[in-house]
Amino acid sequence: MYHPAQGGSGVDRPGNIFYILNQMANRAKDGLLSRMEESLLLVVWDLRQEAYGVPIRSRLAELTGRRPSVGAVYVPLERLVEQGLLRAEEGEPTPIRGGRRKRFYRLTPRGLKALQETRRVTERLWAGKTQWKARRV
Fold first, then answer.
1. Backbone angles phi, psi at 13, to 5 degrees
2. Domain topology for 34-116
3. Are 86 and 80 in contact (CB under 8 A)?
4. Which residues neighbour 94 within 8 Å (Cβ) at sequence distance 6 or greater?
5. pLDDT, tens digit, for every residue of 78-128?
6. Which pTM does this prediction carry?
7. Which residues have C-beta within 8 Å of that of residue 91, sequence separation ≥ 6?
């Protein structure tokens, strides 16, 4: 919890949105992905040529048993594009979509590297965990 005696401006408080966004940006710099970012990169990689919004959401729902909201998918997808982990390209306009274009996503070499690093760290964290019974404290 933030205490004024600890110093720092209001923006430095853990509950402040700018603090949270800054922490997210710093986390992104260390190469580790959030669970959602990891899931999105893996789904885009899996879908290959069909990786656009609707199939991405459907595949996530199929794999997780939960249907993510539109914002829960598109916001991190665009963040991954900004970070260079995905590439986005516009498809051809289609009459069935009222002339709108689909936005297709592709995994970049940098995105693959981030996935590999996240997997390496996750496997190290899971190493030696053979019992599923929690210890009492």
1. -75, 140
2. Arc Repressor Mutant, subunit A (1.10.10)
3. yes
4. 100, 101, 102
5. 999 999 999 999 988 888 878 888 999 999 999 999 999 999 999 998 888
6. 0.72
7. 52, 101, 102, 103, 104
